[in-house]
Design goal:
By secondary structure, the chain is mainly alpha-helical. Helices cover 80% and strands 0% of the residues. The chain has a domain at 1-30. The chain has eleven helices and no strands. Helix 5 (74-91) runs parallel beside helix 9, helix 7 (106-116) runs parallel beside helix 9 (175-230) and helix 9 (175-230) packs antiparallel against helix 10 (234-242). The mean pLDDT is 92.
């Protein structure tokens, strides 16, 4: 579980509530049903116009993925690839076929299967790079939904503000209605800003970070598969793959022999 995401959302809401309490105001002043209808309902309507329903139904799944992300152990990945490299160099590429079924990662399994099948190295590279590119495109489409929602919510907050001001100006003669209309005018902007900056924009940033992590993971696999196919010395393979790591992890892994 990505606990920082939960903590951040809870702390953000708590900070807003504490701010109201410290100011000795009432939380009920910040609850306005018409403003919720305009901001939340309006932004959802825009999302329905912008995206097919099948895409929008993925949003709860994306939240779940963000909270419970796949953990990529780069050190373990490098150890595995170097071990395959050592085995291929000692016993031949066909010897790797026995290990393919045990591989959990389908991307690595596919790459090594292409190598075992004797596929041309350039074709292996093109196939695997294309798969990474398509993955990035899919992830960008998913991230864009939150980017757009982060745009729509404040926009409808501003629309609500304009609506509230219009209703207030039309009814200036009725002093009792000025307060409620002014509340709609101001609170809709607040709701839009909260939706954008506390939920949707951070969610888009997190999805982008997760994509970058997966791209790095697959880049290591791609480099490893091509190195194994070219018959590189396992020590060279190890040095190539370690170069993807940050310096602190790189030094620790470089000291290990990993069976080479």
């Amino acid at each position: 579980m990505e606990i920082t995401m939960i903590i951040g959302a809870i702390w953000g809401i708590t900070a807003l509530i504490l701010g109201v309490i410290i100011a000795k105001s009432s939380l009920l002043l910040f609850f306005d049903l018409p403003s919720i209808m305009i901001t939340v309902g309006g932004s959802i309507a825009s999302m329905l116009v912008a995206y097919p329903l099948k895409n929008l139904l993925k949003i709860p799944v994306l939240f779940r993925i963000a909270i419970f992300p796949i953990k990529y152990n780069l050190n373990e990945l490098i150890v595995t690839i170097v071990s395959f490299s050592e085995k291929a160099r000692r016993e031949g590429l066909l010897a790797l076929e026995d290990d393919l079924e045990e591989l959990v990662d389908p991307f690595m399994r596919k790459g090594l299967q292409l190598v075992v099948d004797g596929t041309d190295p350039e074709l292996v590279k093109n196939i695997m790079e294309n798969e990474v590119e398509q993955m990035v495109n899919r992830h960008d489409d998913q991230k864009r939904m939150f980017d757009d929602w982060a745009t729509f919510a404040p926009a409808f907050g501003m629309i609500g503000t304009l609506m509230g001001l219009i209703m207030m100006l039309v009814n200036l003669s009725d002093r009792a209605s000025i307060g409620p209309y002014l509340a709609v005018a101001i609170i809709t902007t607040l709701y839009g800003a909260i939706m954008c900056y506390l939920f949707f924009q951070p969610m888009a940033s997190r999805l982008d970070m997760m994509t970058n992590t997966e791209v790095l993971y697959r880049a290591i696999i791609l480099m490893g598969v091509l190195s194994i196919q070219s018959g590189d010395n396992p020590r060279i393979v190890k040095d190539k793959l370690i170069s993807f790591l940050p310096p602190d992890q790189r030094e620790a892994l470089a000291e290990e022999e990993i069976g080479v």
